[in-house]
Each structure stands twice: as C-alpha cells, then as structure tokens.
Amino acid sequence: MQLLSVNIGDLKKASPVRRLGRSTVGRILQQAIAGLRDVHLGGYIHRDVKPANMCFGISPQQSGDPQTSFLALTCDSFQEFARAVLSLNTEEEPNYAALQALLTELVGDRKMSDPYDWETNYREAIEGVRIYPYGFQPKCRSRRRCHAVIEEAY
After folding, report:
1. Could you tell me if 23 and 68 are in contact, meaning their C-beta atoms sit under 8 angstroms apart?
2. pLDDT band at residue 147 under the 50/70/90 scheme
3. Which of 74, 93, 110, 136 is close enough to 78 for a disulfide, judged by CB 3.0 to 4.6 Å?
4. Is residue 91 part of a domain?
5. pTM beyond 0.70, yes or no
6. Does residue 31 form part of some domain?
7. For residue 2, is it within any domain?
C-alpha cells in the first residue's frame, strides 16, 4: 500500500495545537466510510470495524475504556456519530446515508479540498472570528453597530 498524500501523524505535528480540527476529522471519517461502503458493495465484509480501529491518536498511557474516554472529550455531534457507529452489528449493512449525513453536518460549510482546514479552525478558536472559504457567502450577516454607538463606547 502506498501513501497518496501527507499522513495523519504529519498533519497533527504540523498543527500548532497538535491536533486535527473537527472538520478535518470529519473528512477523514467520510473517506473511511466511503471506502467501507465500496468494499461492502464489492462483496467483502470487514468484521473488525470499530472506533478503536478508526480513531487516531489515543494515548497508550490512557486509563479506562478508550471508547468512553474518547467520547467524553468530543462535541455532541461527534458523540452522536460515535453512538451510531457503536450501535452497528455484523449482521446488517450500515446505513451509509445516515452516517454520511452526520459527517456532512460536522464538516459544515468547509471546502472538502481545503488542506489547511486545521489551521483555519485554530485561527477561529484563537481570534474568535469565523473565517469563510474563498467564494463562500455566509447565510447570516453579523450584526453591525452604528458609528455613534462605537464612538460612545470609547
């Protein structure tokens, strides 16, 4: 097997906060689910698909059940996705459309091809300002204060 791009470990190391952004993780999982769907459509079944085999970066020093520890640190949307994955069994085919919809909601308005998404998430977290991709028009406009109110504040 050959790497087609930068591996996940290198992306994490390049990040100033040493972790991947929410939408970057969502895109990774979208690709993993698409790959599993294609394998299933080809007639093959992977019997050991579980979060531990699809989640990256869980520390070997971590105590307790990795699944519950991992879920406790995630946002509600990821917890909902993880519960859907954990509820799967080997007797039925997963509802790929539902899983894809959950992940699409997590990725949000990000460009799927944006290689610097983790950097954008970091800047948004630090600066507190939503940074939109080039050409994207936000659905909601921010409320602006009139000059008179701003001048009174200073």
Report:
1. no
2. very low
3. 74
4. yes
5. no
6. yes
7. yes
